[in-house]
Amino acid sequence: MFFGDDEEFHSDLADEPQLIEAFARRNLELSRWPDGAVCPYCGKKTNVKPLGGKSMGDGWYHCGLCRRKFTVRTGTILERSHIPLYKWFLYWTELSPDISASELHKELEITYRSAQLMIERVKRHLIHGPAEPWWVNKQ
Ligand SMILES: [Zn+2]
Description:
By secondary structure, the chain is mostly helical. It folds into two domains: 1-33 and 72-130 and 135-139, no CATH class; 37-71. 42% of the residues lie in helices and 6% in strands. The chain has five helices and three strands, in the order ααβββααα. It has helices spanning 7-14, 17-32, 85-94, 101-108, 112-127; strands at 48-50, 61-63, 68-70. Strands 1-2-3 form a three-stranded antiparallel sheet, with no helix packed on it. Strand 2 (61-63) and strand 3 (68-70) form a beta hairpin. Helix 4 (101-108) packs across helix 5 (112-127). The longest helix has 16 residues, at 17-32. It binds zinc ion (ZN).
């Protein structure tokens, strides 16, 4: 369970999309990088620092070795998608993998096109075996 079994916690968060998003991001970061952010370009973490500032948005890191910026989405099936992270999480944790695009569109209150994109990406991911963690994005 993504949100845990704490009903009160769940309902408190329901009105705070930004908090839910931050919570989802933190969970994704911890599952991908249990020992701290790792640069997806050079694979090192020695010079990785979080980037602050409102203009960047949340969740950005900078690698001092290869001088590139990244987020937890970089190099994954979540890359270049405007769908909030918590909606991806809801899809994985709460909904059937066989859900149709029109059902997903209604459940997550996203466009039909976004629902198709999510299903497409997750299917492409699963072709390589469900044993692969979510951040492995083979073409
Ligand atoms: Zn790097």
